[in-house]
């Protein structure tokens, strides 16, 4: 379709209409109804016709009027909204309470339990790094703080992460959140 100065047009994939200012090859300069000058390729535009032209189109069954009416028809968009709070929620939680890691602690001493908890934390941390999971919360409980101190010692061996107390409202003081920087070499 050819366009000339003064033609009223509409952009096919956008809610933009306006008047042709100039046409150079396939590039068409359009002044929008808001007064902006934008350039489009000819295949992105459709000429809007006057009422007389539309009436004659109806008589001769021209498909152009169908395209315009279809474009003007309102179609609500479906989008998934993520609440701001959920956007910052950790994607992985690791509960290091000993009763969640083993069925029985009957033959385990404190050292054995602490070793199991630290090994689990290390494996989960490596898993998160390998799978590019950025935030992990390690739930260690309050107790005497031995596990928390050992976790901090473990986290200090990694250059690509930082750790801090997790969300107090959700976890209280018994959890540490780890943020893993993904593109560090």
Structural description of this entry:
The structure is a single chain. With 185 residues, the chain is α+β, with helices and mostly antiparallel strands. The protein has seven helices and nine strands. It has helices at 51-60, 64-72, 84-87, 98-101, 110-130, 146-155, 168-171; strands spanning 8-11, 17-24, 27-32, 37-41, 45-47, 92-95, 135-139, 161-165, 175-180. The strands form two sheets. It has a five-stranded antiparallel β-sheet with strand order 4-3-2-1-5, with no helix packed on it. A hairpin with a 5-residue loop joins strand 1 (8-11) and strand 2. The longest helix is centred in the middle third of the chain and has 21 residues, at 110-130. The model has no long low-confidence stretch (mean pLDDT 81).
Q: Which residue ranges are poorly predicted, with pLDDT under 50 across at least 5 consecutive positions?
A: none
Task: Tell me the span between the first and last alpha carbons.
Answer: 54 Å
**Number of distinct beta strands:** 9
Strands in their spatial order, largest beta sheet: 4-3-2-1-5
The coarse overall form would be rod-shaped
N-to-C order of helices and strands: EEEEEHHHEHHEHEHE
- Our count of helices gives 7
Instruction: Give a short account of the largest sheet.
Output: 5 strands, antiparallel
> If you compute it from the alpha carbons, what radius of gyration comes out, rounded to the nearest whole angstrom?
32 Å
- Give the helix level as a range of percent: 25-40%
Share of β-strand residues: 15-25%
Q: How much is the average pLDDT?
A: 81
């Amino acid at each position: 379709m050819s366009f000339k100065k003064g033609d009223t047009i509409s952009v096919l994939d956008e809610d933009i209409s306006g008047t042709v200012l100039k046409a150079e090859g396939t590039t068409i300069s359009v002044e929008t109804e808001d007064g902006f000058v934008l350039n489009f390729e000819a295949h992105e535009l459709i000429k809007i016709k006057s009422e007389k032209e539309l009436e004659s189109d109806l008589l001769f069954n021209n498909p152009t009027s169908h395209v315009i009416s279809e474009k003007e028809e309102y179609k609500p968009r479906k989008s998934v909204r993520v609440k701001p709070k959920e956007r910052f929620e950790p994607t992985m939680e690791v509960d290091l309470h000993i009763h969640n890691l083993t069925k029985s602690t009957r033959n385990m001493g404190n050292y054995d339990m602490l070793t199991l908890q630290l090994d689990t934390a290390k494996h989960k941390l490596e898993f998160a790094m390998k799978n590019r999971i950025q935030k992990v919360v390690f739930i260690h409980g309050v107790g005497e703080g031995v596990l928390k101190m050992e976790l901090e010692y473990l986290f200090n061996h990694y250059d690509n992460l930082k750790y801090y107390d997790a969300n107090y409202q959700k976890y209280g003081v018994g959890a540490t959140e780890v943020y893993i920087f993904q593109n560090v070499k």
